[in-house]
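Q: Can I see a sequence and its folded structure?
A: Here is a first one.
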Amino acid sequence: MDRDKSISRTAEVLCSKCQSALDNEFKIKPGVFRSDSFDHHNTFPEVLAAVKLGCFICERMFSLASVKHQTRPHTVGTDDARFGTYAWTKLDHQPYCLEINWCWERTTTAVTSSLYEFAFFPAEDAKVLSLSSHLGPSTSSPTTTDTVKKWIADCERNHPKCGAAQGDFDFMPTRVLDIGNQGSDKLRLIHSNTGDMPIGSRNYIALSYVWGDSIPFKLTTSTIEKLKEGVPISELPQTFKDCVALARQLSIRYIWIDSLCIIQDSADDWEVESLNMRAIYSNSYCTVAAAASTNADGGLFRDRSIDDLRYGTAPSAWFQKVQNTTGQLNFLERSTWNQQLKRCPIFNRGWCVQERLLPHRVLYFTDHQVLWQCDSKLSCEAFPDVMPDLYGSHWYVPESGNVPKTSLGYSPPTKGILDEQLARWWHRIMEDYSDCMLSYPSDKLIAIAGIAELFQKLTGDQFVAGLWKSSILETLTWRLAHTSRGIAKRPASYRAPTWSWASLNEAVTPLLIAGRNGSLGLDTLTYRATVLDLHIENKDHNPLSEILCASITLRAPAVRHKCDKLDPFPELMRINAMYHSCQTFKCVLQFDTQEDFDVTSDEIVLLPIRTMATKMWTPVAYFKNASLQGLVLRPIVGRPGEYTRVGRLEGFGESEEGGMEHFGYKLERDEWVLDEKAELETFKIL
């Protein structure tokens, strides 16, 4: 496709740091992988100066940073913000990659950083980054509508996987909004199973959006009759009006909007419908996401400049010398599709996670363009046909935002377990979701119930308080993603057991056993605890509904200890009994909340869950690393044998020696076996 002359490129302004990274002479031969690292901006004022200069790369990275990071104090020094630049290249038709890591904040317990990657191509290879010539001045322009229609038509005709994933073609939500014909100025609420629906297509569009502080008009017991009679479209919030306009352009008569289709002052109706999200979103004709808006009045559409979508061009003295070309390089953010979505307000809202993962088609209306996601393809207006290959065949390509049905299809469960591929998907979702915001923290589990229901359907596994029964021991050792002082808090009211990540209002990192199939050199994996009982009571006996109570009972060796603060880091403590006699095996505790850490006079229990040993080979040496992972428990006063989780235990070293003996194990023939004098204890964790 020919490119519009208005987006032809001239060389960008680059700061001296970015330009020197491109000019550096890599002393390598074609076809040989090599990486080199460079110093980048070492202070925050240097970053601001580069942005003010107009450095294309620094501007792009700064625009991707969070508002918190963009507005940090100008007094930051090198101790708090040390930035490093790393560059990789491979000269056998693979893109040259510039990776920049900006460390925004460093404390005694955590490092907050952002990683940015840019892929570079010879300017002579123009087809790699060939922007669409059909980009209008707004995302409401006819050219955008035409592109959207082409995506949908292509999906319907050429994506059998997307059609198969849709499931029940006769499904309709309990209530939908009938927007009428093109000239109608009203929409009305209809009940799908009472004969209110006219004969014809049952396709509907589902809207995903950020509520904001309030919705001016919503479905309640007092407004239901008015909505049934019909309300003027002109009285709706802008996002709703834009959704109506788009639906009419796509010849879709029905739309589903949660605030207008769920009775907001009826706890019973909300509970029923909130557990119906998988069916509602996965059976929508298409889901439309108001990704760039922070509330319902923000709308779908945005005016834009083509410059917001363009790629960069810059000279490289090194590339000119090695490749014998002009030395001009075209470049673009490597994960450009994901980055555009991640910087949108909708990406940080808890309920919106399943709203973007469950549908088989999603249109994201961002600040600068519309993104397309279906079970077979990712596209955007800048690259409507094929996204550029920014990784190459030998690079690791991150998974897209699609739900696992993209790669697995709707095959019936056969094992009743979460296999490694699905486990990775779930852990990634859990990590992203736990970092999102919820207006009502009590929605923590219900807001991903639709995704959990899909996983249950795919595997036959049992959803247990945010974890999965088949891998419960593996996933009990989750940890906080950020260990800032006092940031993690437990909710005032009960919603999950302490051994579940859902019991905290904080981002967590699941600890999947990477390479448990042997792919990453895992030598030995031994579980030191066994599950005796797993008990959970849900409202109405539905595993996806509200948790009334839950417990897990483990049997394992353990160490009891009085806490001593032996470390200046406020979230980490080392335990004398675990540390003094094992110089190559260090053990640290990470507490879940500041409250858990502050009560240091209590007895705590260190309970090992598993030990692992990993073999690694390098051209010059062989290494064997070992680690121990477990839980930190606190006895419940007055309830013998019952405990709560207050943190996690991790030990690591060059071998397994020096750690397990504290738990009653002894080494026999290179294997740790439980000493006959040691006792196994039973722990019921609530």
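Q: Show me another, different protein.
A: A second, unrelated one:
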Amino acid sequence: MKQFLAILYKETLLISRDRAGLALLFVMPVIFLLIMSVAQDSVYKSVTELGMPVILVDNDQDSLGHYVNLGLEQTDFCKLSTTINGKKPTVKEAHEAIARGEFMFGVIIPKNATASIRRSVENLVSQTIGIDSNAQSGNIDKVEVEIIYDPTTQKSMVTTVSSTLREFISNLKAKIIFETFTGEIKEFIPSTNSKINLAETDVIRFSEEFANNSESKILPNSVQHNVPAWTIFGIFFIVVPLAGSIIKEKQEGSSIRLKTLPGPYVLNHLGKMVVYFAVTIIQFVLMMSLAKLLLPLIGLPMLQFGGEIPAVIVIAIGLSLAATGFGMFVGTICTTYQQAAIGGSLTILILAALGGIWVPLHIMPEYMQIVSKVSPLNWGLEAFYTIFLRGQGFPLIWPYVISLFSFFILTITMTIIIVKLRRS
């Protein structure tokens, strides 16, 4: 027992003197967390809270322009403007303002657009009920509503705006068709005086909600996404100082002297694992504390655990063991510190990229999403997302937790086998 305590003291002393390693473990993930959370939260607010800046040039000055103006004002994702510097802009001025980055979108309603729609509808109605033999088949005026957007705008946002405009135009067209049919019917049935308000005839309504635990009040945001991601990234970077410590003992001959001490040599590895495991737990507590205490002070949402703190602790233990076991394995197979530092760092970066830390999984090709399932960082990330975003608990995280513990057992087993083979 005294030998084991002495080993714990030695490892604690060594890692406390490794300032560069401690900075890598504690400072780097905190910086990543702050930068990514602030950046993504700003994007999130610009779309849903502040709205996308849109300039409307209404050359129609009739029903279509009114419909589009009113509809865009009422949407949550648009911040509508109809003037530039207090003046109604021309199409050219709208182009220039968007090119300067003042607006994300521009919507141009052409002159006489509503009149063209009315003529087309009246012609269509006349052909349908056969009251106008002079109506020409296919005589439909085309109305072109122009959408101008900043080159940096995401395609999904362009699709959203164009779909919204199509909805406004379809509603107007339906209204004109209904009014035209009603007018024609009144000519045959003069006593028909009832007027239906289309605005009150919505028979279908949509409700939106997140697909998470019905009792959970967690709302997805940049903090709920980034805190687990960069916490996992920081925990797995324990590989670099842990592997470096093992190689340093080999190069300095410390490992040979330790083998001459009474007691099993495995105690040295066990003591090293315990110390670095404790460091990863401290990392986890630090990141969670920052998410709870610091991030709200800089205007970001507070991290919500969803009432499943025991499940969060189990995931943290699984991640810490997996990272520590992988560090022991890298330190065993590498022969120089440069191999461990460069190889270990590159491996973690690749696993992070595959696991959805750097790039969200949903934007990856299907085959990449399948490959990502081999990354232990992905197992931890999905487990945290299950709790932080989906509001679930133990029943759904067990597959990920078992995978993390299995990865730890596998890496330690391979480490022991390699050590025995080298001794023989």
